Amino acid sequence: AFLKTFKLKGFKSFARLTTLHFSPGISVIVGPNGCGKSNLVDALKWVLGEQSFKSLRSKSSEDLIFSGSEKAPPLNMAEVSVVLEQHNASEIMLTRCVFRSGENRYLLNKKHCRLKDIKDVLLNMGFGLKNYAIVDQGQIAYLLEISPLEKRRLLEEAAGVTKYREKKEETLHKIQETKQNLLRIEDILGEVE
Ligand code: ATP
What we know:
Elements lengths: L1 E8 L8 E4 L15 H11 L29 E9 L5 E9 L4 E5 L2 E3 L1 H10 L12 H9 L2 H11 L3 H31 L1
Antiparallel strand pairs: 1-2, 1-3, 3-4, 4-5, 5-6
Bound molecules: adenosine-5'-triphosphate.
């Protein structure tokens, strides 16, 4: 899937409606410290279904809603939408809203839906939160420092090899158990004969 459009309104420091259009290839967002670059990453994680406030550098839903500035009063809701383009060129629009009460709303192509529906759509597109789609600053340093063995483990997980490795381990364990059982049966047979 390709991230085509990203819209924010009332999310953290983005009080006014802000729309970003991405073109195929690499996009870079630059700006001075504190201008809201990381808030954009938080917004992206959030609209993709993130439930952990810690991961969004917040303590509660209220921290996600524009809290006011010298120029603008606080807002009562935050809304973020993304348009994702699928391989077959069809587009899908995901929206998430939150109110000061803490109530969240999710929309799929502008129709109300459950968080689970958003998660299912993303899983089907191979675009999950835990799929290393979003790599934060700390993770880059971590990736540079870890051992080759650990790097291989992460690559295998990203490539989807881990689940087969786990299944192999399970099967080897079962074979071992069956071998033990066979030995026991042979013993019993020996005694009977
Ligand atoms: P750095 O390069 O230092 O990481 P950055 O561009 O990533 O900076 P962010 O962390 O995205 O900056 O933005 C921080 C700014 O967002 C701060 O000025 C903070 O006051 C503002 N901010 C965060 N939450 C809210 C909110 N709920 N309402 C208004 N402003 C907010």
